[in-house]
Amino acid sequence: MALGVEHSGDRVISTGIGGWSTPRTPLDCGNSGTTMRLLTGALAGSPVGASLVGDPSLMRRPMRRLVAPLAVLGADISVTDAGTAPIDVTGAPLEGAEVSVPMASAQVRTAVALAALTARGATTVDSPPGFRDHTERWLTHLGLGRVESATTFVVTPGPVPPFEITLPGDPSSAAFLWAAAAVLPGSRIITPNVSLNPGRTGFLEVLEAMGAAVTLEGTEPVLGDPVGTVTVEGGTLHGIDVSGDLTVRSLDELPLLAVVAAAAEGRTTVTDAGELRFKESDRITSSVELARLAGAEAVDQADGFTVLPTRSSLDAGLLDAAGDHRVAMAAAIAALVRGAPVSVAGFGAADVSWPGFGEVLEGMWS
């Protein structure tokens, strides 16, 4: 790999950032904002410099929110005048500090934590509640940090000790299977070995509130992070209001919620989701389009959307995924609600998070 990290099959082996080498070309993060933001944090205190780029969608996403918190540690990072990639990082000595992140962003908090591991002195990071805390649980388990309050984490600098980990299943991917079961009365899906981090289970709470039967069984945690088996059974669904902390903990799944809401009785309203405007696509607009694709009426607001109980006549069943993997996958679930085929331009974007997703879904509900 470009930084000198070994990659073989499904194994990644790194000697740590001290062994990284300066890449000869820009690092291509593809469509992944998580990759770009976390790698920026890891590079900030490394001995190398790099330029980070991505596909056209990623190159339009806001990155200034990342630069300011890292700059508090002394990081040397620049973005374009518009606040977008390419991100140019020059590795520099960092100093521990108190860092305030203005939004509940796990990506920014993790970028700060990764940079702080190389800093001189401890770093405290704080933000509004609602973020996912995978990294902070792992660092605590490895002896490299501690939770100081519900929103405050202290990073203790030092090398990450060697360890092996088998990653649990991704709830944001499993959510499409959970949604498929929820909208089809009599269906049931069982997903073992899935992360049950509290910041990742918001969509399950939404499904349960709408009337689906949801069961969680905890198993052995991974580096202090809860893992378990999730069972979802379909039933008669009803609309709900989603806002505040629940919106934050369901953010990635909200376009999918628009599809589920199309199968429900009554109105579903989502607010406090303005962040959706700045994802791989404008996911508020996409959510409205998905609900309509599934056969419901829907309208958008500045920070969310409403799916109405009024059923609409089915349109031609066409949707442009706009290069957004979650929109493409949600459209496949819309076909189940619709009870008729849909045609998705750019469905290949689903491969970003789940190669072969279409085949898996077809095999389970064909």
Describe the structure.
By secondary structure, the protein is α+β, with helices and mostly antiparallel strands. The protein has helices at 33-44, 64-72, 106-116, 134-141, 171-183, 202-210, 244-249, 254-262, 283-293, 325-338, 357-364, and strands spanning 6-8, 11-13, 27-28, 49-53, 76-78, 87-90, 98-100, 123-126, 145-147, 152-155, 188-195, 213-218, 227-233, 241-242, 268-270, 296-301, 304-311, 318-320, 343-345. Strand 12 (213-218) and strand 13 (227-233) form a beta hairpin. Helix 8 (254-262) packs parallel to helix 10 (325-338). The chain is globular, with a radius of gyration of 21 Å. The protein starts with 5 loop residues before the first strand and ends with a helix.
Which structural class fits the helix and strand makeup?
Answer: alpha+beta
SSE sequence, one letter per element: EEEHEHEEEHEHEEHEHEEEHHEHEEEHEH
Mean pLDDT: 92
CATH architecture of the largest domain: Alpha-beta prism
| DSSP, total strands | 19
Major sheet characteristics = 4 strands, mixed
Helix content: 25-40%
Q: How would you describe the shape?
A: globular
- Beta-strand content: 15-25%
List unreliable stretches of 5+ residues.
none
Number of domains: 2
Distance between the ends:
40 Å
Q: How is the CATH topology of the largest domain named?
A: UDP-n-acetylglucosamine1-carboxyvinyl-transferase, Chain
Strand order of the largest sheet: 3-4-6-5
